Write a sequence for this structure.
């Protein structure tokens, strides 16, 4: 009964729309497909009265209520409360050669693309839980997985570290960074990566068929910079046990504020919290 509008942005459904199998979302005994789950969530929201708009917000004014949002289309939207659920996206190394081969052997999603490397050699860049989990997942398909980390020890939790070290398909290269992705143009594809030792500066080439970048995520919060309080990494800050941001009437849910769990189920839970808090805010305001 609150006339909610959802402005979908350039990737409706966020990261789950580029995820294949989802095994840990409650209510499904078998693995489900991420895009299908997002489709079902949209249909459910529409059934309950949500108005969906295909637009991307270019600017916001949160200085006064009703809040004003301007879309790329030029459309002007106003709202008495706002829930920011813009999510996060994968970080890249920033190499020109990396961008050249994205989709042609360079990926940031092992669950999306791991199947294409059955029986092949791949490398994973990173040292946290994401990198460890991607490397372990890729052993289901690839013959060899090389985990490349620029420091001398992994940052992943002890359980993931133990699993990586115990897996005979995984080799770890410490104190090493990727400086260039090598490949062919016709047909375009990754053939190797050029590596540099961060201690000695020496370089070497490692032959691989694919490179998976797993160096964390960045929240999609640039739109709100200077208007909502954020931490040094750009994640929106909220009150303890709440989704309420530093602006009264503005709430944040999901990966845009959560850099610890980053799961579909925790994002959904926070979405519920934000909706309830928005409803209470409106009730109190009137």
């Amino acid at each position: 009964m609150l006339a909610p509008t959802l402005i979908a942005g350039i990737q409706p459904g966020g990261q789950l729309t580029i995820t294949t199998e989802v095994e840990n979302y409650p209510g499904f005994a078998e693995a489900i497909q991420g895009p299908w789950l997002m489709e079902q969530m949209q249909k459910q929201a529409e059934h309950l009265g949500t108005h969906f708009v295909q637009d991307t917000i270019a600017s916001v004014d949160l200085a006064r209520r009703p809040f004003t949002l301007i879309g790329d289309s030029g459309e002007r939207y106003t709202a008495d409360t706002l829930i920011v659920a813009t999510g996060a996206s994968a970080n890249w190394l920033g190499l020109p050669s990396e961008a050249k081969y994205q989709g042609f052997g360079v990926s940031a999603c092992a669950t999306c693309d791991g199947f294409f490397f059955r029986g092949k050699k791949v490398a994973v860049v990173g040292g946290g839980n994401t990198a460890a989990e991607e490397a372990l997942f890729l052993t289901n398909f690839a013959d060899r997985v090389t985990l490349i980390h620029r420091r001398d020890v992994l940052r992943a939790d002890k359980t993931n570290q133990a699993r990586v070290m115990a897996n005979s398909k995984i080799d770890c290269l410490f104190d090493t960074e990727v400086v260039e992705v090598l490949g062919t143009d016709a047909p375009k594809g990754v053939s190797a990566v050029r590596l540099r030792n961060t201690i000695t500066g020496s370089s070497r080439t490692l032959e691989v068929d694919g490179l998976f970048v797993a160096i964390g995520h960045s929240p999609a919060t640039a739109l709100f910079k200077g208007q909502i309080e954020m931490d040094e990494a750009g994640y929106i800050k909220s009150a303890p046990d709440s989704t309420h941001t530093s602006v009264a009437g503005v709430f944040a849910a999901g990966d845009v504020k959560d850099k610890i769990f980053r799961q579909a189920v925790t994002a959904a839970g926070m979405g519920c919290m934000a909706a309830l808090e928005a409803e209470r805010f409106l009730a109190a305001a009137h």
